[in-house]
Amino acid sequence: MPESSIGDLLRIMAALRDPEHGCPWDLEQDFTTIAPYTIEEAYEVADAIDRCDFTDLRDELGDLLLQVVFHARMAEEAGRFDFNDVVRTICAKMIRRHPHVFPDENGGVEKTANAAGQTAAWEEHKRQEREQRGDSDSSLLAGIPRGLPEWQRALKLQKRASTIGFDWSEPGPVLDKLHEELAEVRHELDTTAEPARIEDEIGDVLFVCVNLARLAKVDYSAALRGANAKFERRFRRMEALAAADGTALKGKSLAEQDAYWNRAKADDKAGLLKP
Asked: I need a surface site. Which of 5, 128, 180, 243 has the fewest CB within 10 A?
């Protein structure tokens, strides 16, 4: 395969978006329609990392890079900015936000002592940048994007609040809070059964679960991906066990399905199922 450069990818994207000879699908897209693909590709990168599949990771990183190129091309067509502007902006930002690594470009600032100090400095740089843009929101929680997955936004809100000490120091009290929130969900289910109030209480449970994972030093997203993978692995085993018995799960009682689940769970714990 011949060597390729970012310039080749930019030319390919320009050809795909050519009004006369381009791809009809690519020409129909805009920022709004492409955004979901951008998010999806980022998750596929994370999935490849979870599976330690570096061949797949190489491919998924390429797909993610294509998303950046696609957005930059549409912006260039609209006369807003181009890919080179994107590169220049991120280079300048990384140098500006790492004065301990690039002191010459930042007035000879001393090195940061540790990662915690750098995190605090990073947030301060972001605050200053918002201020320079004329953002008048002075809250400690300012600048946390609303487009994030809600679990991730919950995590960022909690981390930001923890910087001034509004936080628990260990998981134990969070478990107590979780029991409290679950009791409130049960109360709503047993009394009002009003959807909005139930949604509100379940939201509190999920927020506390994110907090519990954070203080237990567990990646909430990785934990949920693992739980999803485990459920899928075991459910597929249930289907296979039922098929081996000459039957299907559909139409069986919950008790019968649960018996298959217990068999699948035992097989999984014995290491008989593929990840």
From this structure: 5
